[in-house]
Amino acid sequence: MSEARAEILGRVRAALADRPAAQKVPWTYGQAVGTGGIDIVARFVDRVADYRAQVERVDESGTGAAIAAAVRGFERVVADPAVQDAWPGAAEWIVDDGLGAYDLDRVDAVVTTATVAIANTGTIILDHGAGQGRRALSLVPDVHVCVVHAGQIVDDVPKAVAQLVNSGLHTRPLTWISGPSATSDIELDRVEGVHGPRTLHVLVVD
């Protein structure tokens, strides 16, 4: 150890000498966290909004209209057959018949459902089964509209993982989404849409 480093660390120890020892925080990996009694749907909505995503609560009967409003003005909206069958009049749907990267880049928006959502982190998980389409559909278009049912929301990550494991979905490629795609440079300037949708619109169906 260099003399300068030893001197600096010595000063730090001296400055902290009269401080009480840090208390050990008990923790068991995988332990449930919970939401502290806060309604999990309300917590999820709050967390999703923190990520600068657009989020709104709708009832089951109003889901189609909410989707239509979210994609209003878009000419090219893609979704897999399950979404198109569930809400046929919500958009002029484009069929994904193996659209390549160039064609997907020209799509205005994608509409998917979800597999599970996490209240404490505002995270949505897709397993790319029925209603969600292949991974490229939710990663290339600039706008992603995601329909999440309230019953799919769990409070914390351990519960979400347990649900995926218990259903066998953990063996599939999963996409975990926490807000719109975003990154920042060394100056901490936030840039959205660099490696995924610039806009995430979440419809929480109660």
UniProtKB/TrEMBL annotation:
Source organism, top-level taxon = Bacteria
Residue ranges annotated as coiled coil are: none
Q: InterPro entries, alphabetically? A: FTHF_cligase-like_sf, LUD_dom, NagB/RpiA_transferase-like
**Ranges where the LUD domain occurs:** 105-205
Q: Please name one Pfam family that this protein belongs to.
A: LUD_dom
Q: Gene3D superfamilies this protein is in?
A: NagB/RpiA/CoA transferase-like
What this protein is called in its record is Lactate utilization protein C
Q: What is the lineage of its organism?
A: Bacteria, Bacillati, Actinomycetota, Actinomycetes, Mycobacteriales
